[in-house]
Amino acid sequence: MIGVVLASSLLVLTCASILSGETIRELPRGEASGAGNTYSYELVDRAPRAYLAGRLFQAASAGDAFSRILTPTFRIGREAVIEVVPRGWNDAGEDEELGSVTIAASKPGMVLLDVRTLRETFLVLNDTFYPGWVARIDGEPQEIHRANHLVRGVFVPSGQHRVEFSYEPRSFRIGLVVSAVAAMILVVIAAGPSLRRRVARRVRVETIP
Q1: How much is the average pLDDT of 169-176?
Q2: Phi/psi at 8 (nearest 5 deg)?
Q3: 133 lies in the same domain as 69
Q4: What are the residues whose beta carbons fall under 8 Å from the beta carbon of 134, sequence distance 6 or more?
């Protein structure tokens, strides 16, 4: 079971090999070699960092997701496993063209992708699924789905789009609000004497008979 989980993790996170001190027997997508107590498992196919999935499978648990990913018929880089396939979703044909995705920018805490889709597709970004990440398509917030149990994905409508993933944990957003409120208070305090003088002058003018 350990071998299955390790192999699955590598498949969806785009790594190329596993180093282990013991034989991993259940590795249908790898080739093993080794000497002594060290074994190397080279993955013969792995997903790109970002890809468009036109076919989705539903799996409520990690075990179900990994089992699906490790089946020989699972098409890495074209299919994905998510927790709930939404109503109205229609799988693409086996060889139907989906479009293209390119990574426009990537740095810690932010990934920008240019996506061109010919139909509604599911964009998989092989970066760890973790609380605090938010997604936007053309500036509009989108729900992030757990894809292949370990990584992130969003549904993208047909057309040309800019997709952004950014790390904005709740503590960060609270900090922004607190900073904004504090800035407003400082502005009011700084403007207080001047504001009082203007009000006083206006009162004097209005009370002159």
Answers
A1: 58
A2: -60, -45
A3: yes
A4: 141, 144, 165, 166, 167, 168
| 146-171 confidence digits (pLDDT tens) | 999 999 999 999 999 999 999 999 74
Distance CA 53, CA 81 (A): 9
pTM for this prediction: 0.69
Buried b (16+ CB within 10 A) or exposed e, 109-142: eebbbebebebbbbbbbbbebeeebebbbeeeeb
Cα separation, 70 vs 92, in Å, equals 21
Residue type, 89: W
Q: Which burial class, exposed, middle or buried, applies to 79 when counting CB atoms under 10 A from its CB (0-12, 13-18, 19+)?
A: buried
3-state secondary structure of 91: coil
**52 close to 122: Cβ distance less than 8 angstroms:** yes
Is position 97 within any domain?
Answer: yes
Shared domain check, 132 and 113: yes
* CA 80 to chain CA mean position, Å: 13
pLDDT at residue 185 greater than cutoff 50: yes
Instruction: Please report which residue ranges of 32-169 form alpha helices under DSSP H.
Output: 62-69
Q: Which two tokens stand for residue 50?
A: 């970002």
| Residue-number span of the structural domain to which 207 is assigned | 173-209
86 and 145 within one domain: yes
